[in-house]
């Protein structure tokens, strides 16, 4: 993938090396939230999976058996559980995404993330004369869709607080902050490695009137105050999520938004002719690094948003590969 990116003038190796050889590692202590693993408010359950006999398996759910198989094979056998569902969410994040053995929980994945994002944009607009032109279309149309939806259905309400769920290394957060400079933007992600890179890069950039805040949390259960944001955005995340996580993310976005607030999702479009016409080889390759792609395409996102309580739901194709779905929390 990196050699392909460099053919389109994306310096993948150079960008990765620059991060890995920097002082980005110093950001981890201020970013990492240990409650992701050990939330104090949940009851403690200690299980030694290795000691469970086959006769005991009948009392375990399919999800617990999945945990047992994965953890013993990869990490060990004795674990402190605070919530079975949250443990599953951690396993999802540890799964091999984007061909990284450690999923998104690694410095290499974090160091390569921005170059990978650039490559995605170039693939979306292959005829663009430059990366900047491609970004103007991909990012520009996405941001305009958010702005237009909010203006149309929120009575031109002030945009004071924006949450970017699954912000990765902060690329989408920076675009949101540039588009809405008077707003306070918060980037949230489950990977402290991604957030460390996001914070490191933001510190090196020109200071903002409203600095971006970075939060290490699970987007399905952020623990942030209800009705505290005017816009909640999820960019290029849902195609990496199982159906149950998509539903939880939609519900959490509804909880976090103020009345009149706008929810915006941009991601692969099931109706994209380009994606529909991918060769079997390319589609198989894409699925091999995106384990939940089928679940994403089979999920009725607009329907799930309506069930969660959103109104004024709109879907537009913002570039040849991606759709932006927007909805409003009713007053």
UniProtKB/TrEMBL annotation:
Gene3D superfamilies in the cross-refs: Vaccinia Virus protein VP39
List the InterPro entries. Methyltransf_25, Methyltransf_Superfamily, SAM-dependent_MTases_sf
Q: What is this protein called?
A: Methyltransferase domain-containing protein
This chain's source organism reads: Rhododendron simsii
One Pfam family hit = Methyltransf_25
User: Can you give the residue ranges of the Methyltransferase domain?
Assistant: 162-261
- From what superkingdom does this record's organism come? Eukaryota
Q: What molecular functions are annotated in GO for this chain?
A: methyltransferase activity
